């Protein structure tokens, strides 16, 4: 019976407490109604029962706190619906509503409270507060300590000015050091591009800059200039970091290109070390770009010849084809032009051989390095009278040659023919050249040789100005007259050998240069490529764009719409037709690595001096701690 009565009492109590606030103190009497184990959660949170009364102590406490148990109109009654679940938890789990609220707060984010920032006022200074933080909304900063109690207002004003001065000095020093660091990078970049010694920064540039600033801007500017670090070690480090930055940019760009072309050549430096120079041409941001990829030291000796590069068995091309069988190779057009012009009849070869062995080696060196033979022979022809007097005074047997009119006529002919070859050589040089442009130059020179041979056979020499002027004074011998057409014939045959018509890119891919005029060879394209080319040919908008856009850029722009035909065109335009860039790199290497700097690591300096990529100056500066020069 006790449990039945207890359950009934507990049910009534649930209904009452579901409407009213759960009491903090519940004092039951000692009746049997409240001694059941079902009231254990209540007993654990309630004080010891008080003395028995007629109404029961817990009932008195309930009425004293909240009024009668049946007063549903109490002001707290409207809040009870929100706490009904908490009361159920209290009777079932033995948890108070405040404890359950704490658990909910741990799972739900707290509402952010607004932060109050007190604005600084000048009157705060007498209490030991100065302005700190943002200048637009300064906040008070305490400078007062117990030891400073009783100090006058002027004391805090002086402390304020001292702190402001320290902050300004710190900001100015930091800004000056950062600017000085960036200036050292800029100066190092110019030193590398000028191919000068690294000591020139500290020995010449900095003192000269100080002198200029002293005369124009005053001593304050001189003090700022003195903070720029320009020692030889600093310039070396800056060049290394600039080279690393350029190299990382180059790799990022070239990796985004679907294809790339390499230009490779070898050279021997002042230390007799073999250097392999490699240039790369790639597609980036709808255009072609070319840059030096690397300069590698070889553990062997280099050779001045094409066999080491283009050999079918052990040359560079054979080695690369082992790992990349689909790649294509092209022998440098300028080198082929020099090989074609090297063969001469014995009568003309003797003219050079009689100039002694040293001069012969010079001519061989100029054949490989492409120096101008035409100009040197022209100088000899123009100075033949002073040279004859000089050689006569030295009693040299070479003086007699200048008295031989036939020998002088041969010299005049060589001046003209080598001048023509030199002009062809210069026209083949340059950056961003295409195989079509250079093929036009070679074909035009071959046509000139054929025409010159026919005119010489008729006794017409007006295409050779130096020879024509010499023949106005003397009549050439029959042997000399026959020598010139024979040489022109040999020269034309050599050009046909090194530039065969069957390998002329204009024969099968002239449509690449102008898809709106030239028709392709049907056997050289697939059906899909032919269809795409026809669509391009009949597109008026693309024709207008072709007239105002560079050839490689045009094919890059149409690649998204016509990928197959654009791919074929770009693979024709991307390769290097010459090794001109490597030759310019060798010239820069010769100017940089001299006898006085023969231990210099040339790779970083070459990259900075030859690369067109602009270094990321701000990134270089932020990666370093700015410190002024000592």
Describe the structure.
The protein is mostly helical. It has 29 helices and five strands. The strands form two sheets. The chain has a three-stranded antiparallel beta sheet. A hairpin with a 5-residue loop joins strand 3 (260-268) and strand 4. Helix 1 packs antiparallel against helix 4 (84-93) and helix 15 runs antiparallel to helix 17 (405-428).
Structure summarized in a few sentences:
The chain is mainly α and 630 residues long.
Low-confidence stretches: 42-88, 90-97, 355-371
User: Using DSSP, what is the number of strands?
Assistant: 5
Mean pLDDT: 77
Biggest sheet character: 3 strands, antiparallel
Shape category:
flat
Q: Decide which structural class fits the backbone.
A: mainly alpha
Q: What Rg is obtained from the alpha carbons, in whole angstroms?
A: 47 Å
As a percent range, the share of helical residues equals 55-70%
Biggest sheet strand line-up: 3-4-5
Number of helical regions:
29
Distance between the termini: 100 Å
Percentage beta strand: 5-15%
List the defining traits of the structure above.
630 residues, 3-stranded antiparallel beta sheet, two-stranded antiparallel ribbon, 56% helix
């Amino acid at each position: 019976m006790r449990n039945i009565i207890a359950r009934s009492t507990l049910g009534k109590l649930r209904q009452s407490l579901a409407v009213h606030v759960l009491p903090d103190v519940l004092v039951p009497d000692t009746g049997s109604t409240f001694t059941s184990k079902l009231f254990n959660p209540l007993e654990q949170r309630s004080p010891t029962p008080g003395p028995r009364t007629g109404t029961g102590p817990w009932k008195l406490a309930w009425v004293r706190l909240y009024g009668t148990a049946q007063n549903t109109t109490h002001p707290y009654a409207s809040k009870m619906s929100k706490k009904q679940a908490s009361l159920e938890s209290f009777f079932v789990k033995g948890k108070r509503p405040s404890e359950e609220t704490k658990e909910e707060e741990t799972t739900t984010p707290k509402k952010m409270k607004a932060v109050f920032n007190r604005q600084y006022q000048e009157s705060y200074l007498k209490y030991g507060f100065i302005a700190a933080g943002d200048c637009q909304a300064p906040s008070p900063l305490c400078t007062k300590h117990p030891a400073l109690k009783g100090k006058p207002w002027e004391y805090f004003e002086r402390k304020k000015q001292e702190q402001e001065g320290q902050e300004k000095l710190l900001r100015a020093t930091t800004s000056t050091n950062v600017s000085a660091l960036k200036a050292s990078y800029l100066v190092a970049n110019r030193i590398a591009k000028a191919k000068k010694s690294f000591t020139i920064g500290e020995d010449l540039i900095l003192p000269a800059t100080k002198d200029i600033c002293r005369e124009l801007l005053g001593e304050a500017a001189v003090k700022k200039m003195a903070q720029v670090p320009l020692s030889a070690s600093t310039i070396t480090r800056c060049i290394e970091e600039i080279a690393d930055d350029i190299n990382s940019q180059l790799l990022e760009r070239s990796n985004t290109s679907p294809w790339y072309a390499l230009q490779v050549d070898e050279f021997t430096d002042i230390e007799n070390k073999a250097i392999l120079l490699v240039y790369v041409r790639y597609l980036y941001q709808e255009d072609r770009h070319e840059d030096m990829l690397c300069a590698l030291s070889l553990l062997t000796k280099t050779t001045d010849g094409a066999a080491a590069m283009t050999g079918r068995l052990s040359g560079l091309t054979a080695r690369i084809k082992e790992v990349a069988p689909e790649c294509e190779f092209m022998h440098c057009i300028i080198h082929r032009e020099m090989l074609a012009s090297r063969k001469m009849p014995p009568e003309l070869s003797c003219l050079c051989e009689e100039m002694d062995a040293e001069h012969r080696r010079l001519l061989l060196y100029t054949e490989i390095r492409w120096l101008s033979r035409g100009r040197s022979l022209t100088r000899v022809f123009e100075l033949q009278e002073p040279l004859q007097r000089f050689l006569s005074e030295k009693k040299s047997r070479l003086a007699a040659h200048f008295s031989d009119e036939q020998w002088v006529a041969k010299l005049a002919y060589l001046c003209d023919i080598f001048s023509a070859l030199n002009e062809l050589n210069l026209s083949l040089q340059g950056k961003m050249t295409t195989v079509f442009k250079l093929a036009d130059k070679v074909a035009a020179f071959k046509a000139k040789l054929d025409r010159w041979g026919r005119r010489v056979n008729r006794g017409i020499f007006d295409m050779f100005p130096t020879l024509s002027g010499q023949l106005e004074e003397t009549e050439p011998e029959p042997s000399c007259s026959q020598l010139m057409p024979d040489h022109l014939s040999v020269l034309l045959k050599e050009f046909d050998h090194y530039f065969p018509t069957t390998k002329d890119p204009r024969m099968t891919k002239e449509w690449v240069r102008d898809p709106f005029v030239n028709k392709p060879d049907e056997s050289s394209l697939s059906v899909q490529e032919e269809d795409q080319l026809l669509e391009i040919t009949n597109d008026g908008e693309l024709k207008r764009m072709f007239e105002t856009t560079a050839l490689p850029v045009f094919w890059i722009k149409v690649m998204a719409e016509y990928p197959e035909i654009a791919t074929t065109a770009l693979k024709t335009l991307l390769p290097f037709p010459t090794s001109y860039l490597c030759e310019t790199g060798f010239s820069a290497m010769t100017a940089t690595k001299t006898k006085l700097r023969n231990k210099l690591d040339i790779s970083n300096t070459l990259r900075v001096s030859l690369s067109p990529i602009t270094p990321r100056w701000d990134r270089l500066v932020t990666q370093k701690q700015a410190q002024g020069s000592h």
